[in-house]
Amino acid sequence: MLFAEVARVSREVARTSARSRKTELLAEFFRAAQPQPQDAPIAIAYLAGRLPQGRLGIGWAALRDRAEPAAEPSLTVRAVDAALTEVGAVSGQGAQAGRRALLQDLFGAATAPEQEYLLGLLTGEVRQGALDAAAVEGLAAATGARPADVRRAVMLAGALEPVAQALLDRGPQALAGFALTVGRPLLPMLAGAAKSVEEAVVRLGACAVEEKLDGIRVQVHRDGEQVRIFTRTLEDVTARLPEIVAVVSALPAERFVLDGEVLALDADGRPRPFQETAGRVGSRVDVATAAAALPVHPVFFDVLSVDGRDLLDLPYAERHASLAALVPAELRVRGVLVADPGDEQEMRTAENFFAATLARGHEGVVVKSTGSPYAAGRRGASWLKVKPVHTLDLVVLAVEWGHGRRTGKLSNLHLGARADDGSFVMLGKTFKGLTDALLDWQTEQLLARAVSDDGHVVTVRPELVVEIAYDGVQTSPRYPAGMTLRFARVLRYREDKTPDQADTVESVRAVHTGG
Ligand SMILES: Nc1ncnc2c1ncn2[C@@H]1O[C@H](COP(=O)(O)OP(=O)(O)OP(=O)(O)O)[C@@H](O)[C@H]1O
């Protein structure tokens, strides 16, 4: 498959805002791609603005001077992929120059529109957040599969790419191969938000109100002796959490998949600050010493499979009965049940549980409909989180050099929310809430992602997600969405999130209009 073809479709998909037209364009594209299914994973990654190699760490300088463009397109997606793999592998002394030379060769083989597209891919500018959803529909239309079956396979596979390849290769029957497999992670179910416990309970009806623990989401798979632990982005962190492996190995079943949270606790059981847990899960170095100094504990809140039985489609209440049979109470999330939201006594119990959970130092509660299945990969309408502080996960688009005490540091962050087309819309700026350690960290991280610097504002690749607390959303003609955040302050960076998991402009607008 020609790279030029991907560039063309990407541009056309980005240009139309109609979802049905996007789907049509992608369906045509997949029909044409059918003879070479092995190219589909690379093409899909490019269309969504991802690189299969992940971040390549290519600085602006390496992209500034570009070779003369080729007259005719000849690059294949596989050739581009191979070249970028090679760029990523260059290390050691002279790596900068080596990378630059390889990039020059690649750009020299590309036509002008291909160069532009490559540059967009390398700088993160062609990121298309809504692409995966449209691609699922397009794939279904191209191959005659049911969209719901494709979506389920994607959740079970943890990504669209392998499903696309199998579908294009073998047709709809290939989807049966994507069952929940112990040892292979699936996308976790996510929660929507509600403003109060009462609102959540009224929206859901019969429900459970569970404590919301402020740690790191984990999906734990055990198959006999073999235990594997995955984060919400499906990164395998087993080697970093030996104490969790030990706990899971002692549970009384051979094969299962559990969903939960790990966190560091004080001697009296109160949660330690989130950064400490994140530091443990994020660090590969000297795991044994780190685990001894700051052990983390698992708290499980769901079970997706036990002894060969797939529980995803069972209602919460039944999954929880299985959870209780497998996991002792001290390793299980605490919660209360509400059978009838109209019952005042029950509503008071739920409110009291929320207050008691906050008093124990936790973040809030997650209210879950007891009749609902596990909607892997979805921001389910059947799980609603309730927190006392409003927070948003936003993407850093640019940053200003600091003054005075902050001279030489990158300080004032330009914050963006995700738009429908995968671009980011600036909602405001903040330099509040930053500790000295965070300032140092962000200066280094943001410089590594710089694409331009005019001496005042450094524009960066939109890759870092930061959690912002704010007091409200107010109208402001100064920002493109016509609104900005009141008293925005940095709580922490969310390295466990990617930009396409950031909050959307739409959700911020809903807060603004009280929707
Ligand atoms: N009892 C619980 N049930 C489900 N999730 C929980 C629970 N306790 C803590 N969590 C955590 O809460 C997360 C959802 O709420 P949070 O406000 O952290 O959202 P987020 O991580 O910013 O984004 P997202 O909603 O995308 O997960 C889950 O991913 C999980 O890590």
UniProtKB/TrEMBL annotation:
GO terms for molecular function: ATP binding; DNA binding; DNA ligase (ATP) activity; metal ion binding. GO terms for biological process: cell division; DNA biosynthetic process; DNA recombination; DNA repair; DNA replication. ATP binds at residues 210, 217, 232, 261, 301, 379, 385. The keyword Repeat does not apply. Its cofactor is Mg(2+). InterPro entries: ATP-dep_DNA_ligase, DNA_ligae_ATP-dep_bac/arc, DNA_ligase_ATP-dep, DNA_ligase_ATP-dep_C, DNA_ligase_ATP-dep_cent, DNA_ligase_ATP-dep_CS, DNA_ligase_ATP-dep_N, DNA_ligase_N_sf. Residues 301-419 form the ATP-dependent DNA ligase family profile domain. Its EC number is 6.5.1.1. The keyword Cell wall biogenesis/degradation does not apply. It catalyses: ATP + (deoxyribonucleotide)n-3'-hydroxyl + 5'-phospho-(deoxyribonucleotide)m = (deoxyribonucleotide)n+m + AMP + diphosphate. The active site is at 212 (n6-amp-lysine intermediate). Keywords: ATP-binding, Cell cycle, Cell division, DNA damage, DNA recombination, DNA repair, DNA replication, Ligase, Magnesium, Metal-binding, Nucleotide-binding. Pfam families: DNA_ligase_A_C, DNA_ligase_A_M, DNA_ligase_A_N. Belongs to the ATP-dependent DNA ligase family. DNA ligase that seals nicks in double-stranded DNA during DNA replication, DNA recombination and DNA repair. NCBIfam families: dnl1, PRK03180.1. This is Probable DNA ligase. It comes from Actinacidiphila yanglinensis. The lineage of its organism: Bacteria, Bacillati, Actinomycetota, Actinomycetes, Kitasatosporales. The gene is lig.
